[in-house]
Predict the structure.
Amino acid sequence: MPLAKLALRELEPGDIVTRFSLGHANLAPLKVFLRKKAKDYHTQNIAKTYVLADEDKAQIYGYVSLVCSQVKLEVNNPVPDFPYDYPCVKIVRLAIDKELKGKGLGKDLISWSISISKERIMPHVGCRFLVVDSKASAIQFYEKCGFTLLDTETNKASAHPLLFLDLLKI
Amino acid sequence: MAVHTTVFGGVRLSGEDAKKFSNQITYGRPKKAAASALARGGKLLKEFDKKGFVTISLKGR
């Protein structure tokens, strides 16, 4: 019987992460992270992971992991008298099980990440950007979610181009 | 010019990349898609606050 609904919530110790499948060898690090690291990082407050889970079986069908990070500009700092790094939230992992790809669930996880950053972090702790080191193949996905690609040739040619969202301006 | 980044670490921009980033955040405008995503995420957050989780329906997707 096909799934009718999923729960978006924090990763929990009893969640079944071993059946998560992405269907492509290039995406293996995303699967390995969920299986071997995500729970520990979540508990240790290193990376917080939010999952899309089948509540009946606690099986995971998608996840996003967020960390505190910073953007360091070595020249042209636009804020006067601020020679420091810009605080930000970074999307370090985002994946949807191959069974449910193309249903807009990735966009839901991005919307969730934007709102957490903008509404729950930025008002209380200095935090200017939401950033992601994308896969080159995912640039359009992030742009459709409102991210801006750092528009340089070196970045666009990178294996993991940087995209950002200025939380102050939305 | 370069973008230095690690998965769980920070981002360091130098040269043309730093200049461009500075320019984009100074003069860039937010995309409508970002506002839409924020609005959608806000609804998810409200539901999360009430129940501790959000129900995502797969019907019609």
